[in-house]
Amino acid sequence: MKRLFVTIALLLFASGVNADSTRAPRSIGKANEDGSFVVHVTPGTSMGDVFGYSGREKGPYAVAEWYKYDGDGYTMVSRTTLLNPIAPQQIEVTEGGNLITLDNWHNRGIGVALAIYSPDGRIVKQYTLQELYRPRDLKRIRTSISSIHWRCDGFSTVLDTPRKLWIEDSLGGRFIVDVETGKFDYLAGGGSCRR
User: Fold this and answer.
1) Parallel, antiparallel, or unpaired: how do β-strands 123-127 and 164-168 relate?
2) Residue 138 and residue 122: Cα distance in Å, rounded?
3) I need a labelling partner for 125 at 20 to 30 A (CA). Which of 46, 103, 163, 182 fits?
4) pLDDT grade, residue 21 (50/70/90)?
């Protein structure tokens, strides 16, 4: 009986049931489509503010720097501290230079899941999943030890027009976000992600 229990435990451990693995945080940069803006994000060090790491050291949060092309080269135009203790999982940069951050390092869907910053570093809008979803829909999303897997795996975001960001969610829906105001619509069943 003991051998059976050990075998089952080893199989569960080896299969990674509800386990998360995240690569080490790194600096990321992204340009908008015409290259007029480039945003560079440097990871923070506030591990104690990451869900699942309570008691660890706290420190500065991630920092974003905006660079604008002036005809001869790029000049830094603003710098701001992001809402991410370590780093966003993904960023997008709009035609007008707005920065969109999605999720947090090691914590997809926990805390601020979507934030939009203007090119001067101001927060335009921020959302948690509780603000994006109705409670009954939020309960349908797969969770793991450290994440709520709300976005479609793989290719989940598209800057559809200069003002619209599409986010494909794991329920088969699509968020259409106005990247200037932060207002959004949700189309249940209107996305391309299939479970």
Assistant:
1) unpaired
2) 28
3) 46
4) low
